[in-house]
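Hi everyone,

Forwarding the result from last night's run.
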Amino acid sequence: MDNTYNSHEGQGGAFGHGTREYFVDSNLWRGETVSFAYHDCTLTLRVQGNPIAKETEDRDSVTTETFNLGDIDPDSIKDFQTDSSRDGMACSISPMMNCDSETIDFETRNQAPLINRFHHIVYWKATGTDHIRQWHDKSFLSSFPLDNIQYGKRFEAAFRHAVDLCGGKKSTY
């Protein structure tokens, strides 16, 4: 999963598939790049905001989510596709743009808050204690954004297999 999902630009030119971008009137409104790292059955997602996007042009943000794949309910792994032609996205602004995308959502077993999240935001124009904001919280829900629907089917199968190998079990309710 790492070889194809994560960006490996310096190692053969692969750009990865973990991007999510939203455009308003042909302008990038919000964007983020997601990557992950793992050790055994512990996976950490890293969500990096795009500072050139209009919504986040005044800050840089990173959120990390760490969880054990064995805590994921395999039945909760679901894909949601975005059809650019149906959703009126401005995909004509770049011939390189692939607007048909997918998100793979998943939950922990019994919706227990076992996903540890750490948020870190740097506000460029603020000073003093307002310059940096960071906090921890927990969740039961997370997702992988994917910039390619065909790749999404393969990634979903690989993710489900990894959850199964790490002992993921169905929720009791």
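Residues 1 and 158 are 7 Å apart (CA to CA).

Cheers,
N.
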